[in-house]
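Researcher: Structure for this, please.
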Amino acid sequence: MPIVHIDLVAGRSQEQLKQLVKDVTDAVSKNTGAPAEHVHVILSEMQKNRYSVGGVLKSDEEN
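Model: Predicted structure, token format:
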């Protein structure tokens, strides 16, 4: 039973997240031989004011 943890900054649509877990499941199933129904994907979303790169919070970056 493969378990995949994905940490990402919040802000993606429900449709994007659905496609992400489908694509990850397909890739893991293809490359491990595990049936798709046994692949678990855990998404952990962080708020932009709780994640930084280079000492700058993502919430403080200009888009």
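Researcher: Any notable elements?
Model: The longest helix spans residues 14-32. Residues 1-47 form a domain with the Macrophage Migration Inhibitory Factor fold (CATH 3.30.429.10).
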